[in-house]
Amino acid sequence: MPSALRNWEFKKVTAFYALEKLGAIVAWVNPMYRETETKFILNNSEARGILFSGNGKIATISKMFQTLGTVFPEKGLSETRGNKTESARILGLPSYQTLTNWLKKYGLE
Q1: Which span out of 4-18, 34-48, 77-91 was modeled with the highest average pLDDT?
Q2: Between vectors from CA 63 to CA 60 and to CA 65, what angle results, nearest 5°?
Q3: pTM score > 0.70 for this model?
């Protein structure tokens, strides 16, 4: 096994146990999943964050970001009953305008 792959496997296992130690629940998402499968996992896992591997294909990661671009804003708005300012805050966005632009970009508004 190439050393770079061994190094990545070590980092992945270390991240998994570190998150477990912090009390996080880890839900694995394969970048090859269809959009509907990814959305199902993200919506039903109550995800608050996501970690990406650095060895994925650009096209696959880009597709994953498109899926995330719709799931997290929808969850933020749902949790805040449509309050864009509060949704932007919990999503870590600088302002409600950034959230509004994101919603327009992904056709959610």
Answers
A1: 77-91
A2: 110
A3: no
- The answer to whether 51 and 68 have CB atoms below 8 angstroms apart is no
Domain residue spans of the chain: 31-105
Give yes or no for a contact between 72 and 108, defined as CB atoms under 8 angstroms apart. no
The mean pLDDT value of the chain amounts to: 76
Q: Which of 32-36, 49-53, 59-63, 99-103 has the lowest mean pLDDT?
A: 59-63
Please report the DSSP string for the chain in residue order.
Answer: --HHHHHHHHHHHHHHHHHHHTT-------TTS-HHHHHHHHHHTT-------TTS-HHHHHHHHHHHHHHHHHHHHHHTTT-HHHHHHHHT-S-HHHHHHHHHHTT--
Q: How many CA atoms does the CB half-sphere of 58 hold within 13 Å?
A: 0
Mean local confidence (pLDDT), 24-39: 78
Q: Six-digit token pair at 64?
A: 């994953």
So what's the pLDDT on residue 62? Answer: 59
